[in-house]
Design goal:
Elements: E1 12-17, H1 26-40, E2 44-50, H2 62-71, E3 77-78, E4 81-82, E5 95-100, H3 110-131, E6 137-141, H4 146-158, E7 162-165, H5 172-175, H6 180-199, E8 203-206, H7 209-218, E9 226-228, H8 244-251, E10 258-263, H9 272-282, E11 287-292, H10 298-308, E12 313-316, H11 324-328, E13 333-337, H12 350-356, E14 361-364, H13 370-378, E15 381-384, H14 389-399, H15 404-421, H16 424-440
Parallel strand pairs: 1-2, 1-6, 2-5, 6-7, 7-8, 8-9, 10-11, 10-13, 11-12, 13-14, 14-15
Antiparallel strand pairs: 3-4
């Protein structure tokens, strides 16, 4: 892909990203990787994002953020140099990151998240109007549903191509958190809003084939406008995991015990409580459950483990995303729980890092979900129905008795699958091509 050409000597791209590094979220790295890919290929790129707040409980230097708010915008740098120098030559960077002073809601509360979505969309559109009205294309990986709709409305009114990246299917993934009486009232209207937004996008990017079918059949989007590009992680980060002994020493985890590890956000949809109950019921000897992460449900999970007297359930926390490979080296087997229905609307980002770390995965997810399909296709682990603590306890006991050599073989199958399907080197180029094709008016033939 070469964006700086005779038709587009300096393509101007605006990236509207709801999260951005240093936030350790897959969507943040997708936005950053796409921005660098486009800039390195001759485009002038401006990223619009909020001040960092994810995950819940993370602190990113509030004093510095307040100073940036007073200035109204914050230009970040790459490699110690201020980005933003225009150049049409391949390899020169023209990248600027603008932090918008929108309302943020890192804690998972429905009303606050809705306000956050509207606020970021409004601030992004206002900035686009005032400073970036001449952009050639807008890529949006932003909060559903209001932020997406506001950006789509802005693009439709000004005739700007919009590439809309869908990470979760809304309102479907939201309905489980809404009281039944309210759900019946709002679900239809929110679906109409999502359909309107998708139909006003030049390209809709989804991350799995199940999601693609939802937008083809449930939203009525033309097949040529719905493109599957799988998410990715940087495979180089997991090429060689740190030693398990080093990780155990760092996080004060006993080294001589079989370790089941959950790593990720401890939120309402994750179902971490199920892991604690199943592990306690399994009564395993010389085994431990390590829960690494933060989130709105962490306090409740710690309290649950204490009430149950689960002494071998350990909680660790490390906000530095660069230490994910170190944390994952603790595991003999990874755990991936999702509450019933949640696996049908997205693919959890932790699955990619799990696979590339070459460790088996024990999951409780909807068996017809894309997550289950990945695990079963790669033969890298085991899949059970959600919310079934009895099955999970039995499977924990079973996998703890598998030899180390067999676990290595199972884990390597997962890594091989991950390299084929979730490689940064391949996927970021595909995403960049979708953005370019949206400007050129060509149909994209990418199928992840």
């Amino acid at each position: 892909m070469r964006i700086g050409n005779q038709n587009y000597p300096m393509l101007k791209v605006a990236i509207v990203n709801a999260v951005y590094p240093p936030e350790p979220v897959v969507s943040a790295y997708i936005g950053r990787d796409l921005a660098l890919e486009l800039a390195e290929n001759g485009a002038r790129v401006t990223v619009l994002c909020p001040f960092p707040t994810r995950p819940y409980g993370a602190v990113y230097g509030e004093k510095a953020q307040r100073k940036a708010r007073v200035r109204g915008r914050n230009r970040e740098s790459r490699g110690g140099k201020r980005c933003g120098i225009a150049s049409g030559r391949r390899g020169d960077h023209a990248l600027e990151v603008v932090r918008l002073d929108s309302f943020t809601a890192p804690e998972s509360r429905l009303v606050s998240r809705m306000r956050e979505s509207f606020s970021f969309g409004w601030h992004a559109c206002r900035y686009l109007e005032q400073h970036l009205s001449d952009v050639d294309v807008i890529y949006a990986n932003t909060w559903p549903l209001f932020s997406q709709a506001l950006v789509a409305r802005y693009c439709a009114r000004r005739g700007i191509p919009l590439v809309l990246h869908i990470q979760d299917i809304y309102p479907e993934s939201l309905l489980g958190r809404i009281p039944t009486i309210v759900r019946c009232i709002v679900s239809q209207y929110l679906t109409v809003l999502d359909r309107w937004t998708a139909r006003h996008a030049t390209r809709v990017i989804v991350i799995s084939e199940h999601m693609r079918q939802t937008y083809l059949e449930g939203r009525g989007i033309a097949p040529e406008n719905v493109v599957t590009v799988r998410n990715w992680v940087d495979e180089c980060r997991f090429a060689c995991l740190p030693s398990r002994g080093e990780a155990c020493l760092r996080y004060r985890v006993p080294e001589n015990k079989f370790t089941l590890l959950y790593l990720g956000n401890i939120g309402a949809a994750a179902g971490v409580e199920l892991l604690i109950k199943a592990f306690h019921n399994a009564r395993l000897k010389q085994a431990q459950l390590v829960i690494a992460g933060d989130g709105s449900a962490r306090v409740a999970c710690v309290a649950l483990a204490e009430r149950m007297g689960a002494a071998d359930v350990l909680f660790v926390s490390d906000p530095d995303a660069s230490n994910v490979p170190l944390l994952q080296s603790l595991a003999h087997v990874f755990l991936l729980p999702l509450r019933k229905g949640n696996g049908m609307t997205s693919v959890p980002s932790k699955l990619m890092a799990y696979l590339l770390s070459a460790k088996p995965v024990l999951a409780t997810v909807d068996t017809e979900s894309d997550t289950a399909r990945c695990i079963l296709e790669s033969q890298c682990g085991w899949v059970g129905e959600p919310d079934n603590a009895q099955w999970l306890a039995g499977k924990m006991a079973e996998v703890s008795g598998i030899s180390a050599e067999a676990l290595v073989m199972i884990g390597m199958r997962g890594r091989e699958y991950g390299l084929r399907h979730f490689s940064k080197a391949v996927r970021v180029k595909e995403l960049g091509e979708v953005v370019e094709n949206a400007v050129n008016g060509r149909k994209s033939d990418v199928r992840g």
